[in-house]
Amino acid sequence: MAFRSIKGTKDVLPADTHRWQHIESVVRSVFQRFNYKEIRTPLFEQTALFSRSIGELTDIVGKEMYTFEDRSGDRITLRPEGTASVIRAFIQNNLAEQLPLTKVYYIGPMFRQERPQAGRLRQFHQFGAEAIGSPCAEVDAEVIAMAIEVYRTLGLRQYSLKINSVGCEKCRPLYKVKLQEELRKIAPQLSADSQRRIDENPMRVLDSKDEQDQKLTADMPLINQFLCEECSLHFSDVQRMLESFGITYTVNGRLVRGLDYYTKTAFELTSTELGSQDALAGGGRYDLLAKELGGKQTPGVGFAAGIERLLMVLEKTGYPFADSDHPQVFIAAADDPARAWTIAETMRLRGAGIAAETDLLRRSLKAQMREADRQRALHVLVVGERELVEGKAALKSMQDGTSRMIPLDAIALALTDTST
Ligand code: HAM
Questions:
Q1: Are residues 156 and 183 in the same domain?
Q2: Mean pLDDT across the stretch 254-282?
Q3: In sequence order, what are the residues at sequence separation of 6 or more whose Cβ sits closer than 8 angstroms to the Cβ of residue 202?
Q4: Is any atom of ligand 1 closer than 6 Å to the C-beta of 82?
Q5: Are residues 145 and 289 in the same domain?
Q6: Would you say residue 323 lies in a domain?
Q7: Can you give the residue range of the structural domain that contains 98?
Q8: pLDDT band at residue 420 using 50, 70 and 90 as cut-offs
Q9: Domain co-membership, 178 together with 161
Q10: Domain boundary residue among 273, 292, 316?
Q11: What pairing do the DSSP bridges indicate for beta strands 329-333 and 379-383?
Q12: Is 80 in the pocket of ligand 1 (CB under 6 A)?
């Protein structure tokens, strides 16, 4: 039986890679404009790094991590997200000593064993950024603005921004107790998942997708009514700055993200062009995370966005992706004696910086012409014994069908002469 890829993973095939490359290059150029530098961390880490960061009681840690014991008996996990690894690298490499504010970004695969469906994969790809070292609201606003700038650059309009403040270690415990009290009163009517969460993580109950849960919790107290002065001030600063950037948002007091490290700002960008998995991007502030991972108390804020989901939206809305690259010239052999020369000349042209292709299947001239067409080569040069003797051949432009004779010792020059 032939092998199949693992459920929830996808091949990006040659015909599609240019779309990925385009998104990646837009992401890099936007991030570069905001002065974020790329960081590349390993795809696997100690399991404890993720359970400590994301939270033992979250779905990600409890049900979704790809965890295994390696041959030396160490517990290893394929990264389910990027933030934990970035903070680990930040602490381990003393990045705080180099700059007061470390601004980094990453693009790459993440792994979560979720039930696959449209927009939900087991190996998916994120681009994300983290700004580590500032407690100030301007960084929260910058990070949100940068995520939006990626979508704006790609011409995407169908998204909405929801923001919330999830409080801090001072105000959140008081709120949790109050919420638990209220939730216990209606516990028997709640879904099994929500009942379990009352003790473990009551704020997630408000985020439940279950309709009955949503109705029952409609009038529950929300965290933003319990924020301490510092959190409340921070949250209004973030909003004021977003407004000054011309960014529209809604405050959603029920927004609680699926990772436990957040303090203060949490946000999500959703798209109506996506189905039930409608989150394009999510992020927030995590002022306690570096300390939790054994470093000095260092505030941070960041976000990550799904590339597959972005692609789904762009494809659905008919984004004009440019074509993938085509050979500048296809050199066809008109007869067998010319084959050795066409291959050697193709190599020479490539060495001279020209994207050149030739026939590697020893096909007839007719089949080579069909191939040049299929490859959408910009030019075709047909060379046989006679052309070799004469030292010139016809260079045909595949765009306008015109031909002109060029010397065989100056093909590169002729190609760079043409405006294409
Ligand atoms: P997250 O909300 O878990 O946050 O993931 C961010 C984005 O990754 C989601 O909005 C979604 O677009 C995409 N995504 C997540 N899971 C899947 C999946 N199974 N299949 C396809 N796409 C998926 C984080 O990962 C945090 N590290 C974000 C962050 C950075 N917070 C602070 N800094």
A1: no
A2: 93
A3: 176, 179, 180, 183
A4: yes
A5: yes
A6: no
A7: 17-169+228-316
A8: very low
A9: no
A10: 316
A11: parallel
A12: no
Three-class SS state of 298:
coil
- Residue 375 CA to ligand 1 centre (angstroms): 37
Q: Closest Cα to atom 31, ligand 1: which residue?
A: 283
Residue nearest to atom 2 of ligand 1 (CA): 282
Residue at 1 is within a domain? no
In this predicted model, what pLDDT tens digit does every residue of 144-200 receive, in sequence order? 999 999 999 999 988 999 999 999 999 999 999 999 999 999 999 999 989 989 998
State the distance from the centre of ligand 1 to the C-alpha of 139, rounded, in angstroms.
Answer: 20
Within this chain, do residues 251 and 348 fall inside the same structural domain, yes or no?
no
Global pTM reads: 0.94
Quick one: 54 and 111 in the same domain? yes
What is the overall mean pLDDT for the chain? 95
Range 337-356 average pLDDT? 97
> How many Å lie between the centroid of ligand 1 and the Cα of residue 82?
9
Task: Check if 83 has its Cβ closer than 6 Å to any atom of ligand 1.
Answer: yes
Window from 2-6, 192-196, 229-233 with minimum mean pLDDT: 192-196
Let me know whether 29 and 129 are in one domain: yes
Of ligand 1's atoms, which has the minimum distance to the CA of residue 112?
Answer: 19
Closest CA to 65 of 80, 83, 85: 80
Q: Is residue 9 part of a domain?
A: no
Contact 143, 161 (CB under 8 A): no
Judging by DSSP bridges, how do beta strands 379-383 and 392-397 pair with one another?
A: antiparallel
Verify whether ligand 1 is closer than 6 Å to residue 121 (CB atom): yes
Centre of ligand 1 to C-alpha 81, Å, is: 7
Is a pLDDT exceeding 90 seen at residue 208? no
155 φ/ψ sector (left φ>0, alpha ψ -120 to 50, else beta)? left
Q: Please, are residues 341 and 387 in contact by the beta-carbon 8 Å criterion?
A: no
C-alpha 159 – ligand 1 centre gap (Å): 16
Tell me, what's the pLDDT at 207?
A: 83
CA 205 to ligand 1 centroid distance, Å: 20
Asked if the structure places residue 2 within a domain, the reply is: no
Check residue 276 and give its pLDDT: 83
